[in-house]
Amino acid sequence: MELPTEILAQIVASGLDSFATAKSWCEISPYFKSQVTKNLGIVVVTDLSSPNSEDTLDPLNYNIMSSDLNTVFTNSDQFDAIGVKTFASGYGSILIVIVSDRAFSDPLLTTLTQLTEDLANCAKHTPKNICVLYKTTCNYISKMYFRQFFLSKRLLRLCELHVLGNKNWNETDMCDLDMIFELTYLHDIQTLYSLNIRTMSDKIIAPCLRAIRQLEVTPSIKLDHYLSNCPRILQIEQFKLPSGLGKEPYVLPKCESLTLVNFNPDVRHLKVDGTNVSKELIIMTSQKIEGSTFSNLNFPNITKLKVELPLLTMGEITFSNCLFPQLVYYDCSPSLTLTNWESLVSTGADIDMLKMSISNHRDLWSLKKCPFTVTKKLTITSARPEEVTALLIDDMDLDTDQPGWSNAISFCDRVKLSLRSLWDCIIFQNLILPRISSQCSLCIGINTPGVYQSFSKLYQKEGPDVTELLARWNMHFFNNTFHFYFPSLKTLTLHELADSSSEIIFDMTEKFPSCDVPNQYTDPLVSDPYVTNLAISPSEFRRNSLAGIDSVTARRNSVLKIGGNPSSYYLRKRSSGSYSLGQRPDISKSLLLTRSEDASLASQNFFQFALGDPDNVPETITTTLDILENCLDLRESKAQIQRLEIFLTNINCKDLSIAQILADIYERVIDILHHPILKPSGKFLCKEVDMQLPLVTNNDINFETLLRDLQNFLITKGLVNIQSFRVHESYCNTVLLLRSRVCE
Predict the structure, then answer these.
(1) Residue 736 predicted with pLDDT over 70
(2) Can you give the pLDDT at residue 499?
(3) What's 13's DSSP letter?
(4) 538 with 144: CB under 8 angstroms?
(5) In which domain of life is the source organism classified (predicted)?
(6) What interhelical angle do 448-462 and 595-602 show, nearest 10?
(7) Nearest to residue 97, comparing CAs of 48, 51, 152?
């Protein structure tokens, strides 16, 4: 049975609310294409700052639906409002095609606002279906672009939104999305900065989506169903449970890592089903809550739990009717509140990795009471370290025979802590060093200014008596230097910290991250201003724009800050004098400084690390060249280190030729291999030297070619024992690993 052409024409016209359907009609026959071009108006808006972007003017091959009569072209910088309005008034279905290469565009915002107002005015007489194709070459989209669409929903039917990203884009995706269209497709978009979901009737299809920075929903949204067409989501960084939930368990969507922000544990009858969360749960409570008892949390598959409470929260972190049977990693370090260990045991958790803050005696007591045998990793931080006083030693209670310390430290394969204050040094000397296993990998972060400031406060109170206090605390301090002696270890890592509040410059214990999606907002390897040039925070830009700031200044003030700059303090050269453990500590007059002089001394190092047993050296030592030269004394070592890993300062390759890059790398390699620190007594300290060298490069450098050229270049220079690898890469950053087998 064949339908009359009139009926077929009506069927075609009624299907123009779908881009895929309209495109399919055009592919069937010229007749159906003529019906599409007759009823579908196409408005193409170009928002291009570079003429090289013109090759992107046919997103999703929409031109198959285009003709000279049904298509109008306009530019966001010179929008023809009257012509476009006249054109659009003759069509019941409108396809808006936007092609942009800008991170944020005031002309595009103005154009879309005016265009939507005109379409809404036309729709008062003729209802209109709206589909939008938005092609961005820099993976940026703002909610502001579609605000007028939302305000005009009563007059316009918002059918489909297709957002087409750039799959070769290596910067942070900055897509700010409000679900106002009936169907939203994301093509080649891996990260959403924010996603706001209003109703279940609006759908999203995003096969490449892997991370959502901020997720906001209404109580009626069933997230597990709503995001079912986003099968590759790994991470949801900020999600606030909607208010007004009923007694039924709230089912979370499928992902690997999820962070609950502004969580209120005081809400009664709240049940959370986290069966779909497969690896990590982070709970950040509201600043206004007072309770710290978490109830009815069912997360049977997570292996890591992190809890962050406000600083003034009272009581203990307690878990009631919670289920974490696969939990092995517990992190309570951001909180000053103690954990009720028995309640954590009742969840079914079996903790073998622990991260906690030891900032006072209560924390020490809590660690001693920990019932879990921490066998894999112990990380100690100090959120607000206790001020060291003369009474401290009487309350430390660090007896070696205490069984609690053995469970937490003695069986642990990896121990990681930072020396940011004198309190940290005392904990390290009295709690960690006496109990650490010979098979343990120890990682120490050093913050010299922080320790010095803490030490200065104690000296101002105690004066010369500070030397006796340090001796009572088993601290080895002489010639203005703290001395630490390592027992037998499997591996040792020493690195510098930027400041007392920042993260580690290089996390040398986790050089090969297991997570497929790195945190794109805090990656320290992308802190270069050139990298963040186009990473604009949409919410910050809105606030700056509403404050009356011009677009250029608003964009500059809205650049997303990523990471932090390394500290600029320098390490003091090691004294040539010899020291002995029996020597009485003495405070040099150089410590009697005015406040203005504090900064200069705080920039100097007064740490010295050495091996307690010269016959037993770690298999691997990882550090920086500064620490190796100034803080780490290996002169007494009687055995060769199997591997020495050195992190070097980066090379900015942006304005260098390949030949210049290779020459710079070669000079650094030679400086390391011929450095006297590696051969202090006629023999090499190590059998193998690894040099990790960050390269800040242009996007057009082929790293595989660079590695091949580097390998050949080193061979021509006689360095046949060196192999080069690429161990990490992010936008405009590559870390090279240069491995040298030392030959006598």
Answers:
(1) yes
(2) 56
(3) H
(4) yes
(5) Eukaryota
(6) 140
(7) 48
- Tell me the one-letter amino acid at 528: D
Is residue 426 assigned to a domain?
A: yes
SS3 20: helix
Rg (CA), the chain: 31
Question: Under DSSP, is residue 46 helix (H, G, I), strand (E, B) or coil?
Answer: strand
Q: What average pLDDT does the chain have?
A: 79
Q: Kindly state the tokens that stand for 67.
A: 């003709």
Question: Quick check: helix, strand or coil at residue 133?
Answer: strand
Split at pLDDT 50, 70, 90, the class of 549 is: low
Mean pLDDT in residue range 549-553: 56
Q: State how far the alpha carbon of 98 is from the alpha carbons of 186, 187, 222, 330, 538, in Å.
A: 14, 14, 32, 47, 19
Per the document, the length of the chain is 744
Q: Model confidence over 6-25: pLDDT tens digits?
A: 676 677 677 778 898 888 88
Phi, psi torsion values for 204, nearest 5 degrees: -130, 135
If one compares 54 and 65, the residue with the highest pLDDT of the two is 65
Task: Enter the tokens of residue 340.
Answer: 């009720």
Q: What pLDDT digit, counting tens, does each position of 476-525 carry?
A: 998 888 999 999 999 999 998 865 333 333 333 333 233 333 333 333 33
Q: Which residues contact 2 (CB under 8 A, 6 or more apart)?
A: none
Edge to edge, the sheet with strand 250-251 lists 250-251, 272-273, 297-298
How many C-beta atoms lie closer than 10 Å to residue 153's C-beta?
Answer: 13
Could you read off the pLDDT of 331-384 as tens digits, one per residue?
998 887 889 999 999 999 999 999 998 888 888 888 888 899 888 999 998 866
More confident residue, 547 or 47: 47
Amino acid identity, residue 376?
A: K
How many other CB atoms are there within 10 angstroms of residue 557's CB atom?
15
Record the tokens describing residue 171, joined without a space: 């910067």
Give per-residue pLDDT as tens, 192-230.
999 999 999 999 999 999 999 999 999 999 999 999 999
**CA neighbor of 141 nearest in space, from 164, 168, 122:** 164
Give how many domains the chain has, as a whole number: 1
Q: Which residue has the tokens 């922080």?
A: 450
Could you give the angle at the alpha carbon of 120 between the alpha carbons of 117 and 123, nearest 5°?
155
Q: Is the dihedral of CA 86, 88, 89, 90 positive or negative?
A: positive
Side chain identity at 412, as an amino acid letter?
C
Residue 424 backbone class (left: φ over 0; alpha: ψ -120 to 50; beta: rest): alpha
Q: Is residue 247 included in any domain, yes or no?
A: no
What are 86's two structure tokens?
């006249």
The two tokens of residue 439 are: 């098979």
Confidence of residue 231 (pLDDT cuts 50, 70, 90): very high
Q: What's this model's pTM, rounded to 2 decimal places?
A: 0.79
Burial of 592 (0-12, 13-18, 19+ CB in 10 A): exposed
Find all residues with CB under 8 Å of 208, minimum gap 6, and list them. Answer: 167, 186, 187, 188, 189, 190, 232
Residue 694, classed as helix, strand or coil, is strand
Domain holding 508, by residue range, is 372-382+397-516+523-527+562-618
| Per-residue pLDDT reduced to its tens digit, 577-600 | 333 322 333 444 334 333 333 433
CA-to-CA dists, residue 143 to 193, 375, 540, 541, 631, angstroms: 11, 48, 12, 11, 52
> Is 431 part of any domain?
yes
SS3 121: helix
Query: Do the domain assignments include residue 411?
Result: yes
Is the separation of the CB atoms in 664 and 654 below 8 Å? no
Torsion of CA 194, 195, 198, 200, to 10 degrees: -170
Q: How confident is the model at residue 254 (pLDDT cuts 50, 70, 90)?
A: very high
